[in-house]
Design goal:
The chain is mainly alpha-helical and 103 residues long. Helices cover 48% and strands 0% of the residues. The longest helix has 17 residues. The protein is globular.
Length: 103
């Protein structure tokens, strides 16, 4: 069976799509920034812990569509000194560390 390869661009697209989807349920004052360098779950973010869980589930679903079965909110993520959920680049790096980088 061939391995499904995922690129940094693929992962970033999935994360940005999930952020955009999250905004559909948010009012104008609590919109998330949808950008490659955006904060996600950092001080001052409009995202609360329940919103983070919903976002992570959406990202997991998007990654599954890319052939990657990933669990993002596990003990590994929670035990890191710097949260992998603090920004888009940190989250993309974290995901690539799980699935392996393929360009």
């Amino acid at each position: 069976m061939a391995e499904n390869l995922v690129t940094r661009a693929d992962v970033e697209r999935v994360v940005l799509t999930a952020l955009s989807n999250a905004n559909m349920a948010r009012d104008a004052r609590s919109q998330l920034t949808v950008a490659p360098d955006a904060s996600v779950f950092a001080p001052g973010s409009p995202l609360d812990s329940l919103g983070l869980v919903a976002l992570l589930v959406d990202i997991e679903d998007g990654l599954r569509d890319e052939g990657q079965d990933v669990e993002l909110s596990d003990a590994r993520a929670m035990s890191q000194q710097n949260s992998p959920f603090r920004s888009v680049p940190a989250l993309v790096d974290y995901i690539l560390g799980i699935v392996g980088t393929h360009a």
